[in-house]
Design goal:
The structure holds two protein chains of two kinds. Chain A is an all-alpha fold. Chain A has eleven helices and two strands; from the N terminus they run ααααββααααααα. In chain B, α11 crosses α12. The longest helix of chain B is centred in the N-terminal third of the chain and has 19 residues. Classes of the chains: A mainly alpha, B alpha/beta.
Chain lengths: 307, 389
């Protein structure tokens, strides 16, 4: 009996370890997606100084764009995923640019309360427009054929290829952001504008234009995240609000305005959320906020506050 | 914002009406207050319920019990913390005669409490919280939908019949989920099965991946899930994407696949669910209802529309018995209590605690339909635990 017992125990340990690895993958993948949305939020918050509550709405708009554009793109461009993404992002940049020009640019000199009021108003407007234009039904978005499969993982489970693809895209975008901010002229201007607006201006940086670009970029990131996530998350009313709250947690933990901080914080939140659900199901709802509180106690400025 | 604006509009319209048509108030209109979710996850459900209700009233020429019906609306946002304020707006500000609502169980509980205290007539057209017709039951509170226990219990019976011994349940951690799982457990244990793990996540969180991995490592005979709306779509799709549907059958109450099949697509095919309504019920009432609903709203009705429609039917029975005289409350309630509703779901009656005594059907997902597959339990009544009436 003894050997078979120990053998079984070893088998159990292997199974548990495999399950643990899969959970790590789950955490990573959720964290990366969070980063995609949160990085736009932290950019806008950190550089423009605007609390943008409507950021979750951009995520929702992205998901609905993926739903609405798919048939159109299929009809005109042969239905490639990248064509849909390109069109969506182009629309998002234009939309963000217009929004900054029409609304957000008036907020820079105002206090936070007015920013919150304005952007909260935008949430209501977007939700209502969505309800009028698309209705309140839940919709599914199909993943492209070449990504629809799944790879076996563990004894019973398979992992959808699309989720892995999503993670890869998120990593690429994170890398691209790093390169733009740290290695390009535009990135230099952005960093300069963030640390000292007047000085940057006097050195010939067009701050108005810069802000417009940053806002459009932030919107594009959220819309892009929504489009990428649509096949996995489905498309439904109010989907942005939930994401918004978690993203604020990420931004606060990571340090306002820090892309690097947002990256680390996203992964942290992803891990705490995933393992919290497994090990402390009763407290799963609050764990992320406990993490935020703990980080704030330890470092009130967040992990990577850029000064 | 929107609500305030509508309210303003309504006030304006009212003032104009009051000035121009003061004479016509002798036998005034009956005010029905809809307290339903018009935004958020359950928005589509709220609209379907209102559509169903209005359809029946329209079929009666806009009148119930000889009196014209007018509507007031409040969006409850499926937000329990605002529920008391919202229902008080209807009762105190708008002076409605009857409140119809809502979808979310937590909100419905708060509504039941206020309705009980203020003795306002309340018809619940969806929320299945057991307590509404259990501990909270009252003569003035009726429900035309179901109790969470009912479809859950029926699914437990089915799962046991199909040989499930070890079952994992998964739901949002809130009243409706707990009660649905409770009913399922009761039915399953009666048939010799056992719930080995109850997984939960906070409402309305939809990150299921971690729990799916957990299910895969437990390897149960079956999974019972309670989700609705966007969460139901995502769960069923994630479950299939994780490959679990190939080896572990996924069961649930009908909400898992109702109004969500277009979005769930291939992931839901062949799934079994239990509910008090199904596609392809071969009765004349259902056919007529479906045709009328389709003609009126250019979309197919679902179970929520049926529940709204029956809420109006029930109110119609009560009002007809007192000829529209709301002052005769006792007679009105007595008539509603003993009514036999000719619902599209089939005829149903009411239990002493004012919950439907109804058949629960087994349905199989086929394309975008929940096809009727059989009757699991005939005329099943909720145990109505804790109801003293």
């Amino acid at each position: 009996m003894a050997p078979s017992g120990s053998c079984r125990r070893r088998h159990d340990v292997v199974v548990t370890f495999a399950a643990f690895l899969i959970q790590c993958l789950n955490a990573l993948q959720y964290g990366l997606l969070l980063f995609l949305v949160a990085s736009g939020l932290t950019l806008i918050f950190g550089i423009l100084g605007v609390i943008n509550l409507a950021h979750g709405s951009f995520y929702m708009i992205g998901a609905y764009l993926a739903y609405a554009l798919a048939p159109f793109v299929a009809g005109h461009f042969g239905g490639s995923l990248f064509a849909t993404l390109a069109i969506g992002v182009a629309l998002a940049v234009a939309f963000g640019y217009a929004l900054e020009w029409g609304f957000v640019s008036y907020l820079y000199e105002r206090d936070h309360l007015q920013q919150v009021l304005m952007t909260y108003g935008l949430i209501l407007v977007f939700e209502e427009l969505r309800s009028i234009l698309v209705g309140d039904d839940v919709h599914g978005v199909a993943a492209p054929g070449w990504l629809a499969g799944s790879v076996p993982l563990g004894e019973l489970m398979t992992y959808p290829v699309y989720r892995l693809f999503m993670s890869a895209i998120c990593l690429l975008v994170a890398l691209a952001q790093y390169v733009v901010i740290a290695r390009t002229r535009l990135g230099m201007a952005i960093r300069a504008g963030a640390s000292n607006r007047e000085m940057a201006q006097s050195l010939g940086v067009n701050i108005r234009f810069l802000y417009r670009v940053v806002f459009a970029g932030g919107v594009a990131l959220a819309v892009f995240a929504g489009m990428i996530a649509a096949p996995v998350s489905s498309v439904y009313p109010g989907m942005g609000n939930q994401v918004l709250i978690v993203c604020f947690v990420v931004v606060v933990i990571g340090g306002i305005g820090s892309i690097r901080g947002a990256f680390i914080a996203s992964l942290l939140v992803g891990a705490v959320d995933t393992f919290g659900k497994v090990f402390f199901p009763q407290a799963a709802g609050v764990l992320v906020y406990v993490l935020m509180a703990a980080v704030l106690l330890w470092r009130p400025e967040g992990l990577f506050r850029e000064t | 914002m929107k609500r305030r604006f509508r309210w303003l509009m309504r006030t304006l319209v009212f003032c104009t009406l009051a000035v121009t048509a003061t004479g016509a108030l002798a036998q005034g209109k009956i005010k029905v207050g809809f307290m339903l979710p018009y935004t958020g996850t359950y928005a589509a459900l709220g609209n379907a319920i209102e559509n169903g209700f209005r359809l029946y009233v329209q079929e009666q020429g806009g009148k119930l019990g000889g009196r014209e019906i007018e509507y007031v609306k409040v969006d409850d946002e499926s937000e329990p913390s605002k529920a008391v304020d919202n229902i008080n707006k209807l009762i105190k500000r708008d002076n409605v005669d009857v409140v119809v609502g809502t979808v979310h169980s937590g909100v419905a509980m708060a509504m039941a409490k206020v309705a009980k205290e203020s003795d306002t007539l309340l018809v619940v057209p969806n929320a299945g919280a057991d307590a509404v017709t259990g501990a909270m039951c009252a003569p003035n509170i009726f429900r035309t939908s179901f109790s969470n226990w009912q479809p859950g219990y029926a699914m437990g019976v089915v799962a046991a019949q199909r040989g499930a011994k070890k079952v994992v349940t998964i739901t949002w951690k809130y009243a409706a989920g707990d009660e649905s799982v409770g009913g399922f457990k009761e039915g399953l244990e009666k048939g010799g099965g056992q719930v080995v793990k109850e997984l939960t996540l906070p409402f309305p969180n939809v990150e299921f991946q971690a729990l799916l991995t957990e299910i895969a490592s437990i390897k149960p005979d079956a999974v019972y899930a309670f989700f609705a709306g966007g969460g139901a779509v995502k769960f069923v799709k994630d479950y299939a994407a994780a490959g679990l549907n190939k080896t572990i059958p996924l069961y649930g109450p009908g909400f898992l696949t109702d109004g969500t099949l277009e979005a769930q697509g291939a992931a839901a095919q062949g799934m079994l669910t239990t509910l008090h309504y199904a596609d392809g019920l071969d009765n004349a009432k259902d056919k007529a209802f479906r045709a009328a609903y389709q003609a009126a709203y250019k979309s197919a009705p679902d179970v929520y529309a049926v529940q709204g429609y029956d809420a109006a039917q029930l109110l119609g029975v009560g009002l007809a018995a007192v000829k529209g005289d709301l002052a005769k409350r006792a007679e009105l309630v007595a008539a509603m209590e003993s009514s036999k509703i000719d619902s599209p779901r089939g005829v149903f009656t009411f239990s002493k605690s004012h919950n439907p005594v109804q058949d629960i059907y087994l349905r199989t997902v086929d394309g975008t339909q929940n096809k009727f597959t059989g009757v699991v339990l005939k005329a099943i009544a909720d145990p109505s635990r804790g109801c003293k009436m």
